[in-house]
Structure prediction request, 512 residues.
Amino acid sequence: MQTPVDVDPVVLIAAALLAAGVLVAWVTRWVRVPGSLLFLALGMLVADDGLGLVRFDDPTMAGNLGVLALIVILFEGGLTTKPSDLRRAAAPGIALATAGVAITAGVTAGVVHLLLGVDLLTAALVGAVVASTDAAAVFDLLRKAPLPPRLAAVLRVESGANDPVAIALTIGLLELWAGTGSPQRVALFALAQLVGGLLVGGAIGYAGAFLLRHVELGTDTLYPVLALATGGLAYGSAAQLGASGFLATFVAGMVVGAFVPRRRRGIQGFHAGLASVADIGLFLVLGLLVFPSRLPGVALSALAVAGALTFIARPLAVLATAAPARDIGWRESLVLGWTGLRGAVPIVLATFPFAVGHPAAQDIFDVVFFVVLVSTLLQGATVTPLVRRLGLAADRPGWAPVAEALPLEGVDVDLVEVSLSSDLPIANQQLQDVPLSHGMTVVTIVRGAHAVIPRGSTRLLPGDLVLLAVEPQAGAAQRATAWARGEVHRKDGHHQQEGGASAPPLSSGRET
Prediction:
């Protein structure tokens, strides 16, 4: 005897697709193809034009689901964005996220208008929709590609902050088409999106961080939930005030990540898993929405848009905004120009014309989807070879921290994990030859599946996880990082203590 509920088949299909998406993500460990592309392909395979297992043709619902997924992805991206990323890349990243988006949209629109002969307003709409890079695609790339820290930071800041301008341009152009907007209104809307998103995200992020630090919830499992609520409140509040909810979510995530160190690991772990689910679900839903049989009809037009975007508009935007920054040479500019991946955000924006009844809505959506496929396949699969070819590959991924603080509640000490990579000066050294500064001591060394009790003669090997006990002063992780990078050693061969006193030279054999 069965008591079927309407949602039962939906749960079954959703769980099956999620499991298939996880297996697809597992496959990407061995094939040099971005996971987002395979998720899109999986969605198209099971949809109407494929096996016909799932029927889904609601662009508005797809856009709404995409917004929910992007909230999770952007908040997780903010949580993992370190303050040092902002110091290292704020100027070029924000320039790319604002002026760079406008330049990309304008150049793409001009080329599309001249090459394809479409009216200027429609060409401008296409340019605006594809103008911003995609946080989901870029964050996934940063987890895999050996980008140097400087470039990784620029891309992280850009992809987290560039949606407001693209959204403002898209909505403004649709209002112009409908006869209800003006260029001045578009400019004011973009300004309100940017400034409001920053302010609302900062305020709600700080309030959430305060609660996470001072409210005793009784169980550690509730803190990640409260953090997630902070991201949702940031988005919803900003959207209600006419500001950018996406930017507010990203900023709130950065604030929580920076000001809640004692619960950072649990919060980040929870949201990393949630972001993975959102990433898989987002691209699966967008794949379900596409009819592959329609793509050949727009292939030539889409290739023209993709070519204009990839080889003309994006490089010009990088040259005009990021290239003038210090420490960004021609090789770095080339990599920045090539890593402007398009993904979920352009596809979500491509659903907006449906809502206002634009006659070219379906063609715009199909072209944008094809552009995303080309960008994901061509650029996403070749970033790593390009970085290595240019000699910019980092031994250590730009997103990976050297040290991470693990503060302990109620204990007058902080634990700091140091992930030992081969490029760090302390690698292959004995502990007695790399003495620690005052208030720091090595507790244990995790090597593979074993724990090594530290002695002065213990040699630090690449791949080790060194656990330090550090007096709870400001910047425990920074002090451990300075030790791991050899930055606390004076040029005269003496070790510089925190208080300014000098220890014996490193060759003295003093045991820590």
